[in-house]
Specification:
Blueprint: E1 2-8, E2 11-16, E3 26-35, H1 38-44, E4 55-56, E5 60-68, E6 80-83, E7 86-87, E8 101-102, E9 114-118, E10 122-124, H2 131-136, H3 138-151, E11 159-162, H4 168-179, E12 183-188, H5 191-199, E13 204-207, H6 213-221, E14 224-229, H7 236-242, E15 243-251, H8 264-269, E16 273-276, H9 282-294, E17 301-306, H10 310-318, E18 325-329
Parallel strand pairs: 11-12, 11-14, 12-13, 14-15, 15-16, 17-18
Antiparallel strand pairs: 1-2, 1-4, 3-5, 3-9, 3-18, 5-6, 6-10, 7-8
């Protein structure tokens, strides 16, 4: 089969790869579409734990089940499905267990014509979504759901700030918050991305690259009950300043590194909660997929590339040019 194969640090190419074999309790999915995540870029650049070569990248995928292993309901064969990339979460709903892993490393991923996964990872493809939208949903939607609802416990009528709008998870967080009846605001260094967020239901946004943006946000919106962040870095202290008393700051990444010294007095005096979040549990997955169907949420697809142009898709993500998800069309 054809697949996007990483043969070394920054050595990515579409190449021939061995087709996966079905395992007991598993299925093989013939993929129609897949999607990129920043995780794929970090692996490509050699900036991720446990990297192995060669590897087939990709955590998001949608397609048709073509094989089913022993002990798997044969009714899955021929079904259109999306794949939950969060594997072996464990029994503790509060945090993933020691065996937790994500599709696309160490297990071979979805940027290929076929992928083998446990049958428990499957969900029916939502009928209202296109193949491209379906592939855009899994990792970003699951990560946003856990951060916004399972961890920060956003409620209707609360005010939420979502940083770095344009990335897939941030866009899902915005869509979920608006659907839940929250007052949503965003940040970005791009006025165009802020304008697009407003079209999705954000009340407004702020350019975090400008001096004094946090004061502008406090004046325009007031304090925030919930803040969702994936950057960290020196700007994290501004988020603490913007949090309302009793506010919750949930974060699922640190693309700008650690924030350095935290303003401890502000945090304890205002009784703020700092909430780490990673991917999501099987319960998070089920709740997210149900919510998307109930509220008719359409994942935002930024660009669609054929598999043969995978390197161009990675280049777009590396320069942060997307708004929403970058999708790969594997087959028609």
């Amino acid at each position: 089969m054809k697949a996007v194969v990483l043969s070394g640090s920054n050595q990515l190419a579409v190449a021939d790869a061995a087709a996966p074999e079905v395992a007991e309790g598993g299925v093989v999915v013939a993929l129609r579409t897949a999607a990129l995540n920043h995780r794929d870029v970090w692996i490509k650049l050699g900036q991720y734990a446990g990297i192995k070569y060669p590897s087939i990248l990709g955590s998001d995928g949608a397609g048709v089940v073509v094989e089913a292993g022993a002990a798997v309901d044969r009714g899955w064969i021929g079904r259109e499905v999306v794949i939950n990339p969060s594997l072996e979460w464990g029994a503790n709903e509060r945090a993933q267990g020691a065996g937790f892993n994500i599709l696309g490393l160490p297990r071979e991923g979805t940027l290929a014509e076929r992928v083998a996964v446990p049958a428990a990872q499957l969900a029916r493809k939502p009928e209202a979504l296109t193949w491209e939208e379906s592939a855009a949903l899994p990792l970003g939607g699951l990560t946003a759901w856990r951060a916004v609802f399972s961890r920060a416990k956003l409620k209707k009528g609360e005010r939420i700030l979502i940083t770095g709008i344009g990335g897939g998870v941030a866009v899902f967080a915005l869509q979920f918050a608006v659907a839940a009846g929250a007052e949503a605001w965003v940040t970005s260094s791009s006025p165009e991305k802020i304008a697009r967020a407003v079209l999705l239901g954000a009340k407004g946004g702020f350019d975090y690259s400008k001096e004094g943006w946090a004061k502008e946000a406090a004046t325009a919106a007031g304090a925030f009950d919930v803040i969702i962040d994936s950057a960290g870095g020196p700007g994290f202290s501004s988020l603490v300043d913007l949090a309302a008393p009793g506010g919750r700051i949930a974060f699922f990444g640190a693309t700008r590194g650690d924030p350095g010294t935290l303003p401890m007095r502000k945090i304890f005096w205002r009784q703020l909660s700092l909430l780490g979040s990673t991917m999501g549990s099987p319960r998070d997955w089920t709740e997210m997929v149900t919510f998307v169907g109930k509220h008719r949420i359409k994942p935002v697809v930024s660009e669609v590339f054929p598999l043969a142009r995978a390197t161009e898709a990675f280049e777009l993500m590396e320069r942060g040019g997307q708004f929403g998800k970058i999708v790969m069309r594997i087959s028609d």
